[in-house]
Amino acid sequence: MSAVDGPVTSPRLSLNQATVKYASLAGAVDAARSAGIEAIGTWRESVAEVGLATAARTIADSALRVSSHCRGGFLTGPDRGAALEENRRAIEETATLAAAGAPGSRAVLVLVVGGLASLAPFAADAGVQLAIEPLHPMYAADRAVVSTLAEALDLAAPHDPDVVGVVVDTFHVWWDPALPESIARAGREHRIASYQVCDWLVPIAADPLLSRGVMGDGVIDFTPVTAAVDAAGYDGDIEVEIFNQAVWDGDPVAVAARVAAAFDAHVARPVVAP
Amino acid sequence: MSAVDGPVTSPRLSLNQATVKYASLAGAVDAARSAGIEAIGTWRESVAEVGLATAARTIADSALRVSSHCRGGFLTGPDRGAALEENRRAIEETATLAAAGAPGSRAVLVLVVGGLASLAPFAADAGVQLAIEPLHPMYAADRAVVSTLAEALDLAAPHDPDVVGVVVDTFHVWWDPALPESIARAGREHRIASYQVCDWLVPIAADPLLSRGVMGDGVIDFTPVTAAVDAAGYDGDIEVEIFNQAVWDGDPVAVAARVAAAFDAHVARPVVAP
Question: N or C terminus: which one in chain B shows less Cβ crowding within 10 Å?
Answer without folding.
Answer: C
